[in-house]
Every structure is written in structure tokens, then in C-alpha cells.
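Before the break, one more example. Copy the sequence into your notebook; we will annotate it together after we see the structure.
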Amino acid sequence: MRFPPVLGYGFRPFFLAAGLAALVLVPWWAASFTLGVPLPTSWPPMLWHSHEMVFGFIAAAIAGFLLTAVPSWTGQKGFAGRPLLLLSALWVAARLMIASASYWPPVLTAAVDLTFLPTLAALIVRPLLRSQNRNTPLLLVLGLLWVADLIFHVALIRHDPPLALHAILVAIDVVLVLVTVIGGRIVPAFTAAALRPMGLQGEVASRTSLTIAAVAGMVGVTLGDVFAPEGHLAGVLAGIAAVIQAWRLTQWGALKTLRQPIVWILHLAYLWLPVGLGLKAVALLNGAAFSAFWLHALSIGVLSTMILAVMTRASLGHTGRPLVVHPVTTASYFLLAGAALIRVFGLATLKVSYPMVVAGAAFLWTAAFLLFVVVYAPILCRPRADGRSG
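Here is what the structure looks like once it is written out:
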């Protein structure tokens, strides 16, 4: 059976799914929050928004990344065809059932949603173990995300919103650990590759000691949020991690990349990590108003920006195209940066109401991912430019 190009490699269906989900989830949530537009689900609006951003949008991007990276890491054949069709169908089914949750028993909805991550893990575990690859421990990330999703559904069934939101917070922390590990490899590597033709060797340093400290710091943040969320200990751990992440970023020659959007967007995404952690520390230790929306600095600033950066770069490289982004894509980077700034600092700096801040950030977010879909949907749905398979 011949499958369409969109099922030709792991990144294709899931990067497209992440882009399309971004166009639905955020504007619908913003319309509900600001205008009272009804949501399609019977879930509490905040829980629906939080869950679907993490386990819908972010999970799709993680799936696309891992299904593409694992073959590269292990030298194994890439995932295509039926496995991608099955995994994509599971992701779509979960989104549809959650959107129409009132029509389904909660346990059934949970069961379908909780099937996605284990199925993804089942696809990538064999090549990782067969090659004894150093990235095999990343399976733990999928396992921890699954546990967080399970706790979320249990809390939802038991009508315990605080526990459900706690599960979301920990899930975000787990993804930030993944960004610390993978981002800590790709940002300096891609920066060094971009600077080399300019004769700027030696501008990028990747120190093992800082890598260990950064990962340990983020694990500490995660444990703090597991056992003492919103307490002073969590604030102290966030502050320590912020300092380590900021020092790590200074080693990567960010200012040398300002003429290359496909590189500087990676630095911008990582920059939000110490900023968000620093804001979290201030919020938990001091309570300053400007730091109140630290979680959006981490979710929009770090995670969404890193997702857009990786999707735009990987989609070009793995379809045989030059690693130079279209000006429209550069515009999407600026729009998403604006969305993060407004969502995090808008209420403290702009003389507008909170609903207006949410609406403004949502508008910029939606515009950013609309531009992504316009440019990249044809790339993701068509054969490689160089005629090769994948």
C-alpha cells in the first residue's frame, strides 16, 4: 500500500498536527475567556486549555521530534506508513474525544488519551535498546509525562482541579528537562555549524560541567514542584536553576547569530528558560506583580518558541531543502516572541485589562502559527525536494 508523503517520515504528520492544533486551541480558549464563546468540551475551561496545550500541542511536537531523531541517533530506518498512521489516529482520536467529552464515559476518554505516549514509546524503544544508544534514558521523559497525564485524568474524574493543575505543572517541568538536555546539544551544535563558514571557530563552548549542572538544576526544579509547589523551596530551586541556565547560554555565542533567524530563534527560546525560572523565583519568594505570569514565560517563551524553532529547521533539513528560512517564517518568530512578551509582561506594563492581554497574546500566537502552516504544510505534505524517500 502506498502512503502519501505526509506519512513518509515521523516529523511530517506530527509537526503538521502541532501547527494545526496551535491554530485551534489558543484562539478558541481566548475567545472563550474574553467573549464567553462556549468550548466544545464539558471539561472545566482552564483544565481543557492546560491539558490540550501540553498533551495535545506539545506532545505532538515531541512525537515528531523523537520519531525523526531516533533513526538519526541509531542509524535505523525511519518510521513511515502504518505506524505513523496508527499513532496519528490515536492523537486525533484523543483530541476529538476530549473536545466532545460530554458524550463519552470519562474513563474511556482517559484510556484513549493515555494510549498515545506508550504507543510512541513502543515505536522508539527497540532501535534505542538495540543500538544501546545514549539517548535511551529519554524514554523516562515519556514515562513521566504519561504518569502526569494519568494523574490529571484521575483528578478530573474525582473533581479535584488543584491536583489536575499540579499534574500539568510537573508535566511542563518534565518537558523543560527535555529542552535542557536536547536544547543543550542542538543550540551550540547548530550555532557552531552556522559560524564556521564565517571563520568564527571557537565562539561556542559546550562544557560538560555546565551541562550536568543545568540538568541537575532542572531536575531539582521538577522535584520541588512535585513535593513543595508554590513554596519557598521551589522558589530557591528555580532561582539556582535560572543562574545556571543563564551562565550556560552565555557560552554559546548568541550575539554572533543575529543575521541568521534559523539560529537566533533557538537562542531566544533558550533565553526564556533562565528568564522564566528567574520570574518564578521572584514570584514565589517575593510576590512581585511583574513576575506573576512566569508559567507562560516557560510555556510560551521556552516550549512554544523551541517547538517552532525546531519544526521550521527540521522540516527543511529532512526534506532536502536549504537551511534558510523564508521571510514569512522569520515574521512568525517575531510574532511568537511578541505573544510571549505580552502574555508575560503585558498586564504589568500595558494599561489594558487582563482579557485584552490574553486576546492580544492569542492573536499574535495564532498569527505566528498560521504563517508556519502556510509555509510548511506544503513542505510537510509533498515529497522531498531532492527526490529521496522520507
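The radius of gyration is 20 Å. The chain has one domain: 5-381. Try to locate both features in your own notes.
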